[in-house]
Specification:
Largest sheet: none
InterPro entries: HD/PDEase_dom (IPR003607), HD_GYP_dom (IPR037522)
Number of domains: 2
Number of helices: 12
Pfam families: HD_5
Structural class: mainly alpha
CATH class of the largest domain: Mainly Alpha
Keywords: Hydrolase, Membrane, Transmembrane, Transmembrane helix
GO molecular function: hydrolase activity
CATH architecture of the largest domain: Orthogonal Bundle
CATH superfamily of the largest domain: Hypothetical protein af1432
Organism: Desulfuromonas soudanensis
Length: 282
């Protein structure tokens, strides 16, 4: 016995499939009548209509079931990825929740920048995983209270490459977007970043977005080696680095995001009393 979920009726394609199936069955019935030279009364099309409707519902139900299963699998994958990022953040009390906040800021900026559905999905995963390469860096370096020496700095600079290796290069365009985001989120717009010294729009757009979100959260979070900045001061710093460290257009759009109500929603867990920023355009 087939059980068809009412959820199939949420999708316009269900109705097109039903109409198409009914028309197809009635057309076959009509052609069959012509072939044997028999006139079929209108009542003779009731059974083909019912059969067409049943076939259409079965096709629609199967398609919707596959879609919902894919959505469930995708959500499960994202949940696993988020758990992995939380485990990474747990290694350092000063960066606890960093990946989650960077993801929130990145998604807000991605939507403001007009990214498509696929790009936003990959941005979510790329921002969650942007620091995954730090798994390979010793806690003694990540939690060091004083300034790092040159050797330790170089080790930290390897984390985008380590992250790329962890996720792995792929022929799948979707996965490669995530990998590129992880590898390039410390590139700078003027070419002075790492690991590849990319410039301008040669830096993947997802990486340019995560770079801004990452910098903003880092500046507004407490660190053992410095006092955190206010959101206003952090935005001013971002704007002053527009065109050198950050994409100018994306930096401007991020400042617009922070001037709106969405900023208050993003930070309400951290600071419920926070008011929307009044930030001048660069």
């Amino acid at each position: 016995m087939f059980i068809i979920s009412l959820s199939v009726f949420r999708y316009p394609m269900t109705y097109l499939t039903l109409v198409g199936s009914v028309l197809a069955m009635n057309l076959l019935a009509y052609l069959q009548s012509n072939l044997i030279e028999v006139t079929r009364p209108l009542s003779g099309y009731i059974l083909p209509t019912i059969i067409g409707g049943v076939i259409g519902m079965l096709l629609s139900s199967n398609r919707v079931s596959c879609r919902e299963k894919r959505e469930e699998q995708k959500r499960l994958f994202i949940d696993i990825v988020q758990s992995l990022s939380i485990a990474l953040d747990e290694r350092d009390a000063y960066t606890y929740g960093h990946s989650s906040r960077v993801t929130d800021f990145s998604m807000a900026l991605g939507k403001r920048a007009g990214l498509g559905k696929l790009e936003l999905e990959m941005l979510e995963l790329g921002s969650i995983l942007h620091d995954i390469g730090k798994i390979g860096i010793p806690d003694t370096i990540l939690n060091k209270p004083e300034a790092l020496n040159s050797e330790e700095i170089e080790m930290i600079r390897q984390h985008p490459i380590k992250g790329e290796r962890i996720i792995g290069l792929s022929n799948n365009n979707k996965i490669q977007m995530i990998v590129d985001c992880i590898r390039s989120h410390h590139e700078r717009y003027d070419g002075s970043g790492y690991p590849d010294g990319l410039t301008g729009t040669d830096i993947p757009v997802l990486a340019r977005i995560v770079a801004i979100a990452d910098a903003f959260d880092t500046m507004t979070s407490r660190r053992v080696y410095r006092v955190k900045l206010t959101p206003q001061d952090a935005v001013a710093e971002l704007l002053s680095c527009s065109g050198s460290q950050f994409d100018p257009q994306l930096t401007r759009q991020f400042s617009e995001v922070l001037r709106g109500e969405e900023f208050k929603m993003l930070l309400e867990n951290e600071s419920p009393e926070c008011e929307p920023l009044l930030v001048p355009h660069p």
